[in-house]
Amino acid sequence: MELQAALIPTPAAGPERTVWQTISDLVLRKLSSDLPTREVSANGRKIAGPFRMDELHLRRNGIKPISMARYRSIPEGGNRFDIPFELLAPCWKKHKSGSADVMGRLHRDKPSVTIRTEFFKPEKGRYLHPWLHRPITHLEAARLQGFPESFQWCGSRSDIARQIGNAVPVGLGRAIAEHLAPLLLAQRDPQATTTVKASRPPKRRRKLAAAA
Fold this sequence. Notes:
Elements lengths: L1 H6 L11 H5 L15 E4 L2 E4 L2 E2 L12 H9 L16 H5 L43 H7 L7 E2 L3 H10 L3 H19 L24
Antiparallel strand pairs: 1-2, 3-4
């Protein structure tokens, strides 16, 4: 039981960080249509970048009027079920159940949902800005994942979106590391009273067929 208690952390105390606290200062910042033209050499080839965090405040280009009308019909915390019937895509008209996060708008006073690789597409999840009629930007997604303002990025805008969405949230990674580090260091200490050993699967015995 002591070992189990050491391996499983207790929930952290304190207030949760909300979407409003994380991205509200970006409301008046101008959106960019694309990344700056810049290249760096890495492993013998050239790739786009590096780009600062503030250069990732990118709009989704090519938003159609019907998409904008759908965005405007969805309230904070709402989703595709709030869209008027005449604005629904044919596939949504036939399906009145399913995920409540599709075409969802974030709550400003709650923590963000999981950020995935296509956060710039509201049809993929709850990625509409809490009060502006647009999807969240790469910068906003990176902030919601906990990346610091000093972080730099390389690649195309779709490459960077994948890096943001595939990342373990920075705060979660830090919490896991801070919890595991003492346990790992204790294994290296010969004076430690508790040693955590990885369990091994039982060996399987091979059945030998009798000779004919």
